[in-house]
Amino acid sequence: MFKILDRYIYKTFLPLFAMSLVVCWFLVVMQFLWRYVDELVGKGMGMFVLGKIIFYAAFTFLPMAMPLGILLASLMTFGNLGERLELLSMKAAGMPLYRIMRPLFLLVAAMSAGLFFFQNDFMINAQVQMWNLVLSAKTAAPELEIPPGVFYTGIPGYSLYAKERLPENGQLRQLMVYDMSKGYLNPRIIRADSGRLVMDKSKKFLVLKLYDGQSYENLRAQTYNTSTEPVPYMLPHFAYSETFIPYNANFSVQDEKQLGGLYITKNLAQLSKAIDSTALVIDSTRSYYAAAVTRDLAAAHYQGFSYPALDSAEERRRHEELQRLSERMASSTIDGDSLLELTTLGDSLRIVTGALNRLEQQQGQASYFRDDDEATFYAYRTFRQEWHRKFTTCVACLIFFLIGAPLGAIVRRGGIGMPVIVSIFFFIIYYSIDSLGTNMLRSGDLPVWLGMWLSNIVLLPVGIYLSYQANRDSAALNAEAYLIFIRRLMGTLGVRQVVYQDLTLEETDYKEGMRHITKALALTKELRQSPQLSAPTPKLWLQGGRFPELEQLSQQLDQIVEGLHHSRDRLLVGKLNDLPLLPDRISRFLPRHRLYSRILGALLPISLPLSLLIRSNRRHLKGDLDTTYYSLQTLSELTAKAASREAEGKRSPVQDEPSPTTEDHIYSMQ
Length: 670
Known about the structure:
It is a single chain. The protein is α+β, with helices and mostly antiparallel strands and about 675 residues long. The chain has 19 helices and seven strands. It has helices spanning about 1-40, 45-60, 60-85, 85-90, 95-140, 270-300, 310-330, 335-340, 345-410, 415-445, 450-470, 480-490, 510-530, 535-545, 550-565, 570-575, 595-600, 605-650, 660-670; strands at about 150, 160-165, 170-180, 190-200, 205-220, 235, 235-245. Strands 1, 2, 3, 4, 5, 6 and 7 form a seven-stranded antiparallel beta sheet that branches. Helix 13 runs antiparallel to helix 15. The longest helix has about 70 residues, at about 345-410. Residues about 655-670 have low confidence and may be disordered.
């Protein structure tokens, strides 16, 4: 039986998983294409090359789509089982939820293991091929399409401006060309009435055809010197001119060996080796940089002084002199400005200039050391990130199953609508936390392992809690329970449920009911004018939450319902449902005892939001009292009519003809 049930669960899950995975896979690949569409379109690539990029991207982004597909499929599977009451039948047969989830959990665990081996082996080649094609497209020369009204700098060494472009033949009007192929100091400026830019058949040259224009060009090459000697130039006019510009528009794939040092080309063992070697490089370079900075600082400080060897007497004399100078300096105020005043202007300038030069030199050296260390540490951190990512994605599949399966069993709704919404919600949470952890580890706020595992650490307790509650059929995840709690929080206790009884063994005492209704009407009228319902909220904190009149009215309403719900009048019984369920005090947040109420009211950070809730509860209570008053008036009229009808029925004369017995009735039927 269990094996048949396991096969049935597999048959239910696998088609939904295949559909979910394909949809999620497609969305992830399309996100990649939307991100890089500007860098791929218009680069001279054929459809075959573009298809290869999409093919390799599909394998590269499969680990991103797998957790979302498992979450959506598990939600839909258990939602369908719950909606068709099959899940209820399995539980009625004595099978707990974890036993129903067990075959799919084992299947997802096998998928996670397969995903790990896929990432560690096959996906590496797909990543290398995809990013090699993408980087080749980035470095490829774009196809030429001169936009009108702006300077186009897509051609190396040239800047073109066209005021107008004719769409029918691509002709450019009112052209301005800056030819800087000989350097920025020797430009050639061309103005033309019209022109065209065409590509050679070999796609290695551009031909700039210009009509009716004038060019400006220096006759002598300029340099960076500051000579004021005039430079001869020429301004020839032309009716037609052709300029050949070297421009290779052919798409060529780069060598894959250029990506050999990146993390995308390494499996788990290679990443571990790269992490160890990079850590050794970081330690050695930091030790070298620290020694170099210390040595340079010492050399810069002592480069103008010589320290000959001294005997003990001379050394002792200098120590005594240094001590006297220290005592003298301690009794006077000496700073940098006062020291410079003791020197000449030239010496002061030389001292300050030398100090600034040494400082700039040390800052430049420190900046170089820092940049080199950051580049090495970036490689080290990237290797460690990729090492952890090979495990985090696989564990995420199991976590998403632990979230999706119990949620589907709780929601009990199949189809696509609700599961898709829930899946997208958890997917956004997962990748938002993952992005947060990645950014924090890059800034150094978190260690690498914690930043990479942060999303799994946050969602794993959620999956375990949902599985535990769903297995216990707990009402903690029942939406109706939360709605009731919110209603009570806002002061609404719900409605009465009084059902008309076709067969009653008790007679209704309408006189007692009228007495309770009259007393309840008086209490309701008194409560509607009570000062506690109109007093300011701070005064309620001083008086406390005890409200005996409201408690008495609530008891009176319960007695009315208890006494009249056996009535034969359907309208009267139905009207009992209009009586609200009244609380025994204004608000649950207002303590009954005055002392406790005043202490809580004095705690302003807590009492301010509670005061808003108390005002809302009191507003609901006023509305319930109005409803109670008008409902009691109607009940009074209906009760009086029902009592009169019952009294008339008792006073009606007895028929002279006896009622037929059961035996007579049988004979009449025959």
